[in-house]
Specification:
Number of domains: 4
Helix content: 40-55%
Strand order of the largest sheet: 8-7-6-11-10-9
Bound molecules: adenosine-5'-diphosphate
Oligomer: single chain
Largest sheet: 6 strands, antiparallel
Distance between the termini: 105 Å
Number of strands: 18
Number of helices: 15
């Protein structure tokens, strides 16, 4: 020991102590008290020294004090400061204070002194209270988030878990479970994927992160629940030694996902069925007319053959008709397939007025009915950029509908106009197909572009939806104005060639 320190008095040491100290003799007289103890009791040194310690003890605890004192004096052993040795004392203002106390016997010239070391237990209680509160908060948060906690000790092959998890596995309130038992409740189909997630996390070159979803079959009720587990493997000298993590019950989420998947599949099936039926209808729409024409031409040819001397010119015309209608059907099918398969749209610079005249020739050739064509075609209209066959198809369809709508009219007139359509930000070619036929009311107007909507006994109701789709893929718009008194006006636009 440093020589100077030897000179220090007992009193100096006593007063310098951080803990509260009190020295009493075997008759409970206070011999010495340090400043920390004085501060706790609120008395000065002079007020305490020489007094019997009993006056500091809360009256109802004095009996208990006598009992302890007796025990201690009989076997004077050291008792370290601890919560077990609680004493209730009172300070100058008679405020009760709970002390954690330690006792050390000191023998001096046949006399026994007791050094009492103490601290205010309420501080400890506050700390314990704070810990309990934070644990309670953690418990509530875990509960609210539906989280379970696990700690897998690789060395002892044991899993520490909380109540939340043990309940899921079907083991009530056990704090640990052997790893084998833990694994036994995991759904056999999920064990491999779970194990490989652990293996990946146990690789010292990995981040140690563990994340996997698996099913657990409860050992008590046999119910299967989905678990999402996340955690981290801890390493010591590059050796994995524990995996700590949380689990979350995701059964509801999984069930919802499954229901949504079933719904998605159903919707997809319905959609596929609709596409199939739309495709079939579109094919029927395209083939109806040429087939009817081929049948008519064939009948003419057969009729001719039945004659004793068949007229070879008539026969040739009928057969030519068959050939051209069959070719038209083939072309239509080809284009339809290209359109349905969303193949690349092939467009070309086209003169719209020419396209209109061609479509009129087809309509006349097909003989849909009588009408007077009135052409208001703008001669200097710039060329449009479009797929000629598709636009021709639209025109034929609009002309045919118009002719059919005028079949009961005395002077059926089909007026076709082309013009420049200028809006705020676009310049396009505009085609108007006007008839003076039956027209239709607003209820029908709302539905004419719906697939399968038809008012005709042998109609299919696909002409207008297909026409609108064709104009749109060519960069234009198709719409209708209808007046039941004055027939119908269909309009469509197409972009000019740049
Ligand atoms: P479909 O001709 O097979 O009925 P569309 O889609 O071409 O199929 O036409 C749908 C319906 O729109 C027709 O059944 C008819 O009621 C109505 N419609 C189309 N064009 C005209 C028109 N110019 N005048 C009156 N009604 C029309």
């Amino acid at each position: 020991m440093i020589h100077e320190l030897k000179q220090l008095s007992f009193e100096t040491f006593f007063d310098a102590a951080v803990d509260a100290l009190l020295l009493i003799d075997d008759s409970s007289q206070i011999v010495q008290v340090n400043p920390m103890a004085q501060a706790i009791f609120g008395y000065s040194k002079d007020e305490l020294e020489g007094k019997n310690i009993e006056f500091l003890i809360v009256p109802r605890y004095r009996k208990q004090y006598h009992h302890y004192r007796e025990l201690f004096l009989n076997t004077p052993l050291k008792h370290p400061i601890s919560a077990g040795n609680g004493f209730a004392v009172q300070d100058r203002n008679r405020k009760e204070i709970l002390l954690d106390t330690g006792f050390s016997p000191i023998k001096l010239k046949q006399k026994l002194y007791v050094l009492i070391t103490f601290s205010v237990a309420s501080r400890r209680i506050e700390a314990e209270e704070a810990l309990r509160a934070s644990e309670e908060r953690l418990r509530l948060a875990k509960q609210a988030a539906g989280l379970g906690i696990f700690d897998y000790d690789f060395k002892h092959n044991i899993v520490y878990w909380d109540e939340q998890m043990s309940m899921l596995w079907g083991k009530r309130a056990s704090k640990t479970v052997s790893y084998d038992e833990f694994i036994a409740r995991i759904h056999p189909e999920d064990r491999v994927s779970r194990q490989s997630a652990i293996n990946r996390a146990m690789d010292p070159n990995s981040s140690g992160e563990f994340e996997v979803e698996y099913r657990v079959v409860n050992s008590v009720n046999g119910i299967t629940r989905w678990i999402a587990a996340r955690g981290r493997v801890y390493f010591e000298n590059n050796q994995p030694y524990r995996l700590i993590g949380v689990t979350r019950d995701i059964t509801d989420q999984k069930n919802l996902q499954k229901r949504l998947q079933v719904q998605r599949n159903e919707t997809e099936n319905i959609f596929k069925q609709q596409v199939a039926s739309l495709t079939a209808s579109a094919i029927a729409h395209e083939l109806n007319q040429p087939l009817a024409a081929i049948s008519a031409y064939s009948e003419v040819a057969l009729h001719e053959l039945h004659n004793k001397v068949p007229n070879s010119n008539d026969l040739k015309r009928a057969l030519d008709g068959c050939v051209s209608q069959a070719q038209r059907a083939g072309r239509s099918l080809h284009e339809l397939m290209a359109f349905l398969q969303k193949g690349k749209l092939i467009t070309e610079r086209s003169n719209l007025n020419e396209l209109i005249n061609d479509a009129l020739s087809i309509v006349n050739f097909d003989n849909y009915g009588e009408f007077d064509p009135v052409l208001n075609l703008q001669p200097d209209l710039p060329d449009v950029q479009c797929n000629r066959n598709q636009v021709q198809k639209v025109l034929v369809n609009l002309f045919r509908n118009a002719i059919e709508a005028m079949h009961a009219i005395e002077s059926p007139t089909l007026t076709i106009t082309t013009a420049m359509h200028i809006t705020m930000d676009t310049r396009m070619a505009l085609v108007t197909v006007q008839d003076n036929g039956s027209g239709f009311d607003t209820l029908i107007a709302e539905r004419i572009f719906e697939p399968f909507f038809t008012t005709k006994p042998t109609g299919i109701g696909m002409g207008l939806p297909i026409s609108r789709a064709l104009i749109e893929i060519n960069g234009g718009q198709l719409w209708v104005n209808c007046n039941t008194q004055a027939g119908t006006k269909f309009h469509f636009t197409l972009p000019f060639t740049l």
